[in-house]
Amino acid sequence: MAHIIVLGNEKGGSGKSTTCMHLIAALQRAGKGVGAIDLDLRQTSLFRYLDNRRAFVAREGIALPEPERGVLALSTRDSQADALAEEEENFAAVLNRLDQSCDFIVIDCPGAHTRYARMAHAAADTLITPMNDSLVDFDLLARLDPASGDVLGPSVYAEGVWKARQMRMKAGLKPLDWVVLRNRMAHVNAHNRARVGDALTELAPRIQFRIVPGFSERVIFRELFLNGLTLLDLRDVGQGSLNMSNLAARQELRDLLRALSLPNVKVSF
User: According to CATH, what is the number of the domain 3-260?
Assistant: First the structure.
């Protein structure tokens, strides 16, 4: 079956869609068939990224890899039970269709708790939770004592991941690999960075996640979105000479892919 990677975080602005797009590009360049599902049915940031990519390809007359899309919609049934049943059926149908042709399915969840997001978390083989490197975003994972900085307990989101794990166990599926991705790590404010790092290190064994470095804050990521490009496309579109910032960002992507330890994926870019 296809390996399901879910990008989940109930706060916006953590870089989920950017991370999704770069994972998709890296997996395709590793020779894997990839499907993409955007569960943010209002903003559709991932699919807008892909639409920009398709427009760029048509405009420039070049070929770039693009994933197979799985499109979902909200149920319009009046009963909550009926709506849930319809959405569960639709979600399963999309996964089954993509499973026929894809080695990996990458799912971008919204920054909110929805029925589809709950289904995605239960289906995930790998759950990636990007978070900005701040104590504000740490609140997504756990509550901190404001005086001592000690971890008081898991957040609502962390409890939801635990429930998803329980559902997987009952279904006889392999354990969920939960990865917390420290995105937009600042080059300054070392004290704040250290506090976040210490809190994550304390929390990780308690609620069972791995900590992985993500992407630094770079202007290039905002620029790439407009044309639907990734760091891995720059040489294909005529930008053969990369600056130091772009090269550093590519290295961050290599490190991320290696840290995820996805099945049968060789990092070759």
Answer: 3.40.50.300
